[in-house]
UniProtKB/TrEMBL annotation:
This is N-acetyltransferase domain-containing protein. Gene3D superfamilies: 3.40.630.30, 3.40.630.90. InterPro entries: Acyl/Acetyltrans_Enzymes, Acyl_CoA_acyltransferase, GNAT_dom. GO terms for molecular function: acyltransferase activity, transferring groups other than amino-acyl groups. Residues 1-79 form the N-acetyltransferase domain. It holds the Pfam family Acetyltransf_10.
């Protein structure tokens, strides 16, 4: 299925053929049709996340792995103690707020700055009013009037096994650490039902020990995996290869782009 962002960046998503129909050329035909569709819309950049088994197939179709790296699926079990670690130089001016208090157009702008995906319609009232979604932002000052005021932000969604975290964008490692930690604490508080904050409801899994928070960590940021590991997260053994047609990535996800230093976990590129 093709997704076309407002800035003519394309994404190939949900590429699945029913098991009993596989190996008969349907996948090939489907993929060719998707590429033609993008071509007819003058799409300038096309990306996808490949499972390891399909990487060479996509390479045969002209896709090249991002030089920045892979997406690593990691998780954290809420029954483990949170390792708060040490903050060498805590900035006491930082304020943690509910993401709903950040103007949504700033989130859309920040997302675009980090990914090159223009998805203004996603980051709005409809998304954040969902009962399965909560988010946090770390501000450098009193309020958020421009993207530079936001030191970090993240979104967490409720899933049957617990929660799914992402994106995580941050200006620096300490802000990233604080926003991820705060999200873990918030999710845990909801599970244990001890938090008085009601931005989300309890997930569906009965046994609190069975809850996990999962995220797709952006290995293109050299500090991302290490940061999550230090907070007690571990790899689940699944990686995705981010690939770009003819090797042409969005500038934000190319060498020197903001994704290199500011993106720690992704939000499904397929959505938006
Ligand atoms: C990937 C998928 C959509 C391909 O559909 P399909 O109808 O079986 O594929 P086709 O018969 O048209 O073959 C398409 C190409 O995929 C390759 N391929 C298919 N299954 C493969 C496998 N299990 N491992 C490696 N290559 C495979 C074929 O060699 C072929 O390559 P070629 O045309 O360059 O020679 C299908 O296998 C599927 O739904 N898989 C599960 C979901 C999935 O992994 N999706 C991809 C996410 S990135």
């Amino acid at each position: 299925m093709p997704t076309l962002y407002d800035n003519l960046t394309g994404w190939v998503t949900l590429f699945v053929v029913q098991p009993k129909c596989q190996g008969k050329g349907y996948g090939s035909a489907l993929f060719e049709a998707v590429l033609q569709e993008f071509k007819s819309k003058n799409t300038s950049i096309i990306g996808l996340d490949a499972v390891v088994e399909q990487k060479t197939t996509y390479e045969r179709r002209g896709f090249v792995e991002s030089p920045l790296g892979k997406l690593r699926c990691m998780s954290w079990n809420t029954s483990t103690n949170i390792d708060h670690g040490t903050s060498h130089d805590p900035d006491t001016n930082l304020r943690l707020i509910d993401i709903k208090d950040v103007p949504y157009h700033l989130l859309a702008e920040s997302d675009l700055d980090h990914t090159g995906f223009k998805r203004n319609r996603l980051w709005g009232e409809k998304f954040f009013s969902r009962s399965d979604v909560f988010g946090l932002a770390l501000l450098g000052g009193e309020g958020a009037t421009k993207t530079a005021d936001i030191r970090a932000w993240t979104v967490v969604r409720e899933v049957p096994q617990g929660y799914r975290l992402g994106p995580v964008y941050a200006t620096d490692q300490e802000s990233a650490r604080r926003i991820v930690l705060a999200s873990m604490e918030h999710a845990m508080g909801r599970i244990e039902n001890t938090s008085t904050n009601s931005v989300i409801s309890c997930p569906r899994v009965e046994d609190p020990r069975a809850h996990t928070i999962t995220a797709e960590i952006w290995d293109g940021n050299p500090h991302a995996v290490e940061l999550f590991e230090k907070l007690g997260w571990s790899s689940v053994g699944v990686d995705y290869h981010r690939m770009w047609f003819k090797g042409k990535a969005t500038p934000q996800q190319d060498k020197g782009g903001l994704a290199h230093s500011g993106m720690y976990a992704i939000f499904d590129a397929a959505i938006g």
